[in-house]
Amino acid sequence: MEVLYDKVQQLAPPNEPQRSLQTQASTMALDLARTRVLVFEQLSDSIPFPFLVVLAFWLGVIFASFGPLPETARSSLPSLSVLSLFPVRFSNP
Asked: What are the pLDDT digits (tens) for 1-21?
C-alpha cells in the first residue's frame, strides 16, 4: 500500500484536472490502507463462534459432573461460582 501511495505522489500532473485526479487517487489509496488495517484488526480480535460453542459445552459437562459426586458437595458450589466467571472474561474482549 505504501508503494502505491508513493507512486501516486511521484506523479507530476501538468494541469489542474490531473492534479485533482492525483489528489483523489491519494485519498483513495489512504482509505484503502485504513480499511485494510481495520479488517486485519477485526480478524485478530474475534474468537471463532464454533470455538465458543465447544468451550460452553465442555464447561457445561465439567460443571454438571460435580453434581453426582457426594464427596465434592461442599466444594461444588464455590467451584462452580468461581469457574463460571471465566467464560464471561473470554467472551467480552
From this structure: 678 878 888 888 889 989 898
In order, the DSSP letters of the chain are -HHHHHHHHH---SSHHHHHHHHHHHHHHHHHHHHHHHHHHHHHHPPPHHHHHHHHHHHHHHHHHTTT-GGGHHHHHHHHHHHTTHHHHHH--
Residue 77 belongs to what domain range? Answer: 49-91
State the residue for C-alpha cell 486485519. 40
Give CA–CA dist 60/44, Å, rounded.
27
The answer to whether residues 62 and 85 belong to one domain is yes
Number of domains in the chain: 2
